[in-house]
Amino acid sequence: MYFTQTFIPTLREVPSDAVIASHRLMFRGGMIRKLANGLFAYLPLGLRALRKVERIIREEMDAIGALEIKPTVVVPGELWKESGRWDSMGEAMLRAENRTGNDLVVSPTAEEAVTALVRDELSSYRQLPLTLYQINTKYRDEIRPRYGVMRAREFVMKDAYSFHAGQASLDAAYNAMGAAYRRIFKRCGLSVLPVKADSGAMGGNSSEEFMIESEIGDNTLLLCESCGYAANVEKAVCAHDFDPPPSLEEAKTRSLSSPALEKVSTPGVKNIDQLCAFFKTDAKKFIKTLIYRMAAMEGGAGRGAFVAAAIRGDLAVNEAKLAAALKASEAVLASEAEVERITGAPLGFAGVAGLTGIPLIADTSVTAMTDGITGALADGFHYAHAAYGRDFTPHLIADLRTAKAGDRCARCGGALYEKKGNELGHIFKLGDKYTRSMKARYLDESGQSRTPLMGTYGIGLDRTLASVVEEHHDGDGIIWPLEVAPYQVILIPVKYEGALKAAADGLASALEQAGVEVLVDDREERPGVKFKDADLLGIPYRVVVGDKTLSLDPPALEVKRRGEKGCRMVELDKAPALLAELVKA
Amino acid sequence: MYFTQTFIPTLREVPSDAVIASHRLMFRGGMIRKLANGLFAYLPLGLRALRKVERIIREEMDAIGALEIKPTVVVPGELWKESGRWDSMGEAMLRAENRTGNDLVVSPTAEEAVTALVRDELSSYRQLPLTLYQINTKYRDEIRPRYGVMRAREFVMKDAYSFHAGQASLDAAYNAMGAAYRRIFKRCGLSVLPVKADSGAMGGNSSEEFMIESEIGDNTLLLCESCGYAANVEKAVCAHDFDPPPSLEEAKTRSLSSPALEKVSTPGVKNIDQLCAFFKTDAKKFIKTLIYRMAAMEGGAGRGAFVAAAIRGDLAVNEAKLAAALKASEAVLASEAEVERITGAPLGFAGVAGLTGIPLIADTSVTAMTDGITGALADGFHYAHAAYGRDFTPHLIADLRTAKAGDRCARCGGALYEKKGNELGHIFKLGDKYTRSMKARYLDESGQSRTPLMGTYGIGLDRTLASVVEEHHDGDGIIWPLEVAPYQVILIPVKYEGALKAAADGLASALEQAGVEVLVDDREERPGVKFKDADLLGIPYRVVVGDKTLSLDPPALEVKRRGEKGCRMVELDKAPALLAELVKA
After folding, report:
1. Measured between beta carbons, which residues in chain A are less than 8 angstroms from residue B116?
2. A7 → chain B, closest CA residue
3. How far is CA B103 from CA A74, A417, B79, B96, in A?
């Protein structure tokens, strides 16, 4: 391809909203342009790079036996009502009503559409497992789209959905997908961090996020400096004081040596700091008790039910963990009035001893407490010497604590540290969440009707591409890894005329013949401008056709790898074969 | 690919709404499934065929230097307000409002988005010509979507847009695009009928539709049996009584020999039939005069202006031609009250003689009339002996008549006949319609700011694919042309076990090695079922691996071309090379 025959409007300036390297460089390199907030068009060069990412993903999906399909982008709202997500997806989902009054959705994801497709075709266990995928347009109405194609409203997603007759089959597909994701990101030249993730509104349990470290990441990760443990802070665990927690019997025995529960007058003492001052002790001695309203608890205490959550005074409840422990979609702190109604005392005097009429869920930290201070469920009173197993017995014990930098790793005891990350991919075991609500069924080997299990697996292509630029650039521009580069070779005739033109044209066609993707900079620009643009565009191999080297005997060219310092001389005749070999490496 | 590893849910039954062959066969062949009215999902086999069409189109676009880009599918409503089509596109355009209150459009086409992109980058004539294209999702809210993917609401379109510094450049791009379209349809195995078309709401003049004959076509075409003339009835011309029309001077001279205009009392005589009976003559003697309200006349008499259209009594006014002649978007018959207000007489007495206060536009047929009967603009009166040039002088003479089967061809005099057709592609010269309204400018060689000219070129991929099936099938199923076939070879082991399995597996991998796309029917089905499905799916070459032919010396296979009668024996060892040669042919 010749530069003057394509459309690469490179720029020196960057728009003021382009604050990250990928946005800046893709914009300056004439790869993307903004149509509106969060809506970006790919120009020819950017699209070539995006297609490379697409090809890598398609190859890896095909290699694990996933089958490509193409549902529509606009799907009937009815399907979302069936699954229940018409309500729960909120404003991020773009809805429209057509001329006949039908509700339509511009797909933000496609669990519903694919489950509907499979449901209608599925009859026997013999058809399972089945993994379908698409690489298609998605739209999510981000509140604050920014950072170019890193966080846009419309984007391209590879989304796959697997259907299974049993857990072992789902596990196998999930693992194969995870391995494929690792290969995909490796081929893209990306250092991803696979982390355990909170599955949020997606439901289900096992899941893994493929994160890329980024200053502007919208996820906080906790990593262990010793063993490589990595988790989204929403789901990160850390070492406990007791691990495993003591049994109720052990706790009871242990509490015999504690002083008896004692009601203490604490007028006006409401928060942990005031308590520490009053009792002249530290926060670790307190049992903090918080009242939560749980949203949409499935198979639990019902929608809108309240629970009390207890945790050691120096720790914080992780609401995502609390929701997950109760299989709820969300945990929201109760209002002051609700707290008063439920506990019989004003805010600040809730406690674990004597609490009735509401389920108590305790963090494991509380199971270590034999002599704690807790609210006495009465205005102006606390209990001292509260002991787990004697003075209170939670309905459920779970890991509720928010891990933080400096906590010890649950796996190896190493120190945890924090990083910001962007999610490029996500794999989930959904279980029967959608197949059950949407009534997909199959007959098993004994002729019994069953609900298939399901997995869901996504990768954002635009974000992956932007992350490649984030990881591979320098002060001058992009440094594309070979597999993602829009062209493999940029050929720069110092002047595009006479013998230089002839040599450049001949070489270009020889390279194309040899299967090398080559961009010829045939513009009437000074060599300096061409070199600057070549650095900006980041094509892996730069080949300069100049008078001096051409007049050598034998005639030669200067070949330089983008991102490396020196360059080397290559004989003109040998260049096509050599470059073909280099780009295949 | 092995049949049991992919997802091809073939069916014996067809849904009742599948009335055309492509819908029926693509559905039965497990290629498409309906998600909702007008929304179809492609399953793996159908998607493979669609991708073949996509590849052909991409290759031909790239070959003429068109550059692929990817604007978004969801675009800002603002762009459509700029161009004026926010109003004129009507209910076919799917609109949505996002969480921040912005109007969004699910693209039905992309003149606006691409003009906006180019506008921002364009500065100099040196950047022109520029042809950009995309192959992307489109949505049009068809009132009655039907016939499977032939007329769906969501579809894939290749849409290209060219920008030019002058008419010659636009003409050249338009011609190159037309030639590319002919190659595309030829490679798809389609017999398209390129016809001149009414450009409808798209504006501009020169345009060509690529039609495919179809009983369920939504266009009526008129074709000449002798010279190959073909046109959409909306724009078809036919031979006139005078061609070219006489000059006004000639007409005046000619009218000297006609009797003088005479006012005749015609009480209660209003329509042509009554007039024929009253005057004892035939419809050709009358000058029919109709009052129209013109919508959005650009550079004409203004929005909502009225015109009088005159035509010989036996002919019908083609409203699309009338609108085009006046550069209006639409011509609508005036109401009875409007007619009375404008002509001063009740409906039925409008006429050309003495008409004032409204522009008169006459069909060429009227220019031949030297002794016509026309309304006298008074209740119960007509004029006899009206002569063009003497008794009335139109403001504009144009071809307004609706051509019909049986009319004579304007080009050669042959008889015209009618066909129904579906439009697969469309190429237009838009002129400056969008570039002007959206303020795209460039500096010409002398530094003057100018508005570029533009062309627009579309092909519907789904409809093209469905048309391939319409043209290539028989009672048993599809007969894919090689270039569009989802696989090139279907390999059927009579039983998939033992030596037959080994032979089939070996052959499959040898074929894949040789670059042949092969589907192996490894299902546990009777050979009869496999053969029936092979016919249904329409893979071009069927290779049967059976005991009998394998036990020959040397071992052989049965190779049959779908759609042909006999089959031939091919030696097992020679099959891969032979088939590779056949599919490349």
Report:
1. 35
2. B67
3. 17, 44, 10, 6
